[in-house]
Amino acid sequence: MCAELLLNVTPSETRVAMIEGGVLQEIHVEREAKRGIVGNIYKGRVSRVLPGMQAAFVDIGLDKAAFLHASDIVPHTECVSENEKQQFQVRNISELVRQGQDLVVQVVKDPLGTKGARLTTDITLPSRYLVYMPGAKHVGVSQRIESEKQRQRLKNVVEDYCDEHGGFIIRTAAEAASEKELAQDAAFLKRLWSKVMERRAKYKTRSTLYGEPGLSQRLLRDFVATDITKVLVDSRQEFENLKEFTSEFVPELHDKLELYEGDKPLFDMYDTENEIQRSLERKVELKSGGYLIIDQTEAMTTVDINTGAFVGRRNLEETIFNTNVEATQAIARQLRLRNLGGIIIIDFIDMTSNEHRKRVLTSLEAALSQDRVKTNINGFTHLGLVEMTRKRTRESIEHILCSSCPTCKGRGSVKTVETVCFEVLREITRVNRAYDADKFVVYASPAVADTLQGDESHSLAELEVFIGKEVRIKAEPLYIQEQFDVVMM
To answer: Other C-beta atoms within 10 Å of 266: how many?
Structure first.
């Protein structure tokens, strides 16, 4: 299906929306303040060698010198067996580098506190399907691609792209990739490495040779093999940057770039802002009147399907089946839109017909086939639930845009007014036993204060008689519902 990319760019945040058939399918968000330097390649200079630590400090132009251990100055070993790895003996750091030497290094760990960045000389350049290894001469395949037939197919294709300059690792995402997609990825990575080498010869030491691209460039790189018809950018500066980037690295998309200068905000064109807000809600309405309830937890994501209305007995089974089939399309879209990964449990409405179950699974598989992220459906369990997994590629949209509620602390619920009232009464009794006071003043939220003086006034009166002391209630507008204080007077 043809797609459009909408790029909304501000100095502090970049948002990219993928639109298919006029409907938002994916949303990507990156905050400038949270970008690290992992993956960046620098031309650095060894400032100090520490034989006792088997390490060296390298000046790459940052505030703190970066750290390079002897074990990180080794040939590519990502795809060789454990026996082969043992052949690579870590030599003494003094034999590997010397003070004042210029090195091309890559950051593998961001600076943290007083510690500088962690470096390696084992350079790798990732794209959507492949990882380029300059200087290597072999092809490695991700261990997560289990099919031996697929592994061999991919290896045979990618081996043709290897030369004396470098080899490749085939990533898990490439399992279903076509030869065209792999060829485009390989060509992109070779062009990228060629530019790094040009800069190495041209730039002075302590310079950045390659910066891990920002969100806009990464997505254009990853979408190069997709049927993108248009890329709209609402920032002139970013538009010029992307023109230069696509001209050098992704020429297939260069002519599809357009600067958006309309009066209406770009994300309002396809109701994108409202769709983002809806992607944060638990409930997703279906056109038939049914709905989904999506709950994201640490362990898994659960999706519950409901008909949403009473249906007659005669057509009940057919209505349930149709609702479940409609839900498969909505589920596939919501998984992409919210970027939900890991274990996903789907509770379809119970179906008595095995034929209906098979057709619902087929419909779910077809809907998920449009997903660029790898998914695996395990079918119905004995309890009638569908188990599936979706590869985690980045934070979910909820985790990026939201934080735990300060009122409920992430529980998703708060204590009722009645529950808090009884807690107040128990706290008064506890304090009265522990301390000598003439009377008590209770500060509570307006709702709790009203209930203590209204529906629960008899309970409060009985407590005053029991402890023999006056209890005054004062409403505190700034208190949340569960918050209260018992003050002795």
So the answer is: 21
Report the C-alpha gap between 380 and 362 in whole angstroms: 12
Measured distance between the N- and C-terminal CA atoms of the chain, rounded to whole angstroms? 72
Q: What is the CATH number of the domain that holds 433?
A: 3.40.1260.20
Which H or E run includes 443? strand 439-444
Encoding tokens for residue 173?
């995402």
Domain of residue 227: give its range.
Answer: 3-32+216-272
For 273-321, the pLDDT digits (tens) are: 999 999 999 999 999 889 999 999 888 999 999 987 645 455 788 889 9
Indicate whether 213 pLDDT > 90. Answer: no
Per-residue buried b or exposed e for 296-330, using 16+ beta carbons within 10 Å of the residue's own CB: beeeebbbbbbbeeeeeeeeeeebbbebbbbbbbb
Structure tokens at 461: 């009166």
Q: Pick the closest to residue 390 from 321, 349, 322, 337 (CA basis).
A: 337
DSSP reduced 3-state for 93: helix
Model confidence at 74, pLDDT cuts 50, 70, 90, reads low
Residues 194 and 324 both lie in one domain: no
Positive/negative CA dihedral, 347, 348, 351, 355:
negative
Tell me: the pLDDT tens digits for 409-437? 888 889 999 999 999 999 999 999 999 89
Dist. CA 391–CA 173, nearest whole Å = 9
408 domain residue, yes or no = no
- Is residue 422, in this structure, part of any structural domain at all? yes
409 domain-assigned: no
pLDDT in tens, 258-272: 999 998 999 998 899
CB neighbour burial string for 181-217, b if at least 16 within 10 angstroms, e if fewer: bbbbbbbbbbebbeebeebeeeeeeeeebbebebbbb
Which CATH number goes with the domain that contains 246?
A: 3.30.420.40
Overall domain count for the chain = 4
> C-alpha dihedral over 295, 317, 379, 383, to 10 degrees?
70
What values do phi and psi take at 40, rounded to 5? -65, 145
Contact assessment for residue 62 and residue 40, using Cβ atoms and an 8 Å cutoff: no
CATH number at residue 347: 3.40.630
